[in-house]
Amino acid sequence: MKENKLFTIDCGEFYLREFCEEDVDAIVEITSQPEVAEFLPDWKSTREQRLDWTINEDIPDNKAFFAAVPNLNQEIIRLGIILKESDEFIGFCTSGIKEELSGSNREVAYAISKHYRNKGYTTKAVKGLIQYLFQHTNVKLINAVVLPYNGGSNKVIQKIGFHLNGNAAIDGEQFNHYVLKKEDWKSIQSEEVC
After folding, report:
1. 121-136 vs 151-160: helix axis angle to the nearest 10?
2. Handedness of CA 26, 29, 33, 36 (dihedral sign)
3. In the β-sheet with 163-170, what is the strand arrangement from edge to edge?
4. Backbone torsions φ then ψ of 77, nearest 5 degrees
5. Which of 11, 34, 37, 69 fits a 20 to 30 Å CA distance from 149?
6. Four-CA torsion 49, 51, 56, 60, nearest 10 degrees
7. CB atoms inside a 10 Å sphere around CB 22
8. 45 three-class SS
9. Of all residues in the chain, what percent carry a pLDDT higher than 70?
10. What is the pLDDT of residues 21-46, one digit of tens each?
11. Nearest one of 122, 125, 142, 124 to 133, comparing CA atoms
12. What are the backbone dihedrals phi and psi of residue 132, each rounded to the nearest 5 degrees, phi first?
């Protein structure tokens, strides 16, 4: 057993938890699914690459993120979506800087295994991360960039309350660019969040 207690956010049926080495195989499996690899090609990797990234980037980045709270700058957080019932890693939710966006450029990104789609988990996970960022950090605005033909992700972002802010050209492709301001988030808090 690990001595360190990992950061978690309780979301009811599941929790968000910072990445750990034991997540490597699940991350490789999820990011190899065609439905995920198409929209997050930079996440696809071999097991060896993912192990290296998890040990040398993901885990240290999360530690740097928590050390910086509440005053975030460029820090990145990567959280797994873990089912409470089985302790299974079923997806992930992250927030970091999207350099291709100007101004306040912190974004949220996410993926979930094809076996757990259309259950509301992704929406609830993103809400949980946003709630944490707006309540515990200096973040005032969060971006999301989604390919127009990614119907599922566009729905998730719209359900959460993001507003379409036009398009963003990234690596030669046009993305829907959504924003969510902290004050707008506060005004929609009458609905349940994790």
Report:
1. 40
2. positive
3. 8-10, 14-18, 77-83, 89-97, 106-112, 141-146, 173-181, 163-170
4. -120, 135
5. 11
6. 130
7. 12
8. coil
9. 95
10. 999 999 999 999 999 999 999 999 99
11. 142
12. -60, -50
* Lookup: tokens for 67: 């050390």
Distance from the Cα of residue 99 to its chain's centroid: 16
pLDDT in tens, 124-177: 999 999 999 999 999 999 999 999 999 999 999 999 999 999 999 998 999 999
Q: Count other C-beta atoms under 10 Å from residue 101's C-beta.
A: 18
Classify residue 176 as exposed, middle or buried by CB count within 10 Å of its CB (0-12, 13-18, 19+): buried
- Per the CB < 8 A criterion, the answer to whether 119 and 104 are in contact is no
Q: Which is higher by pLDDT, 104 or 1?
A: 104
Neighbours of 131 (CB within 10 A): 16
| Superfamily for the 8-187 domain | Gcn5-related N-acetyltransferase (GNAT) (3.40.630.30)
Q: In this structure, what token pair is assigned to residue 172?
A: 């030669």
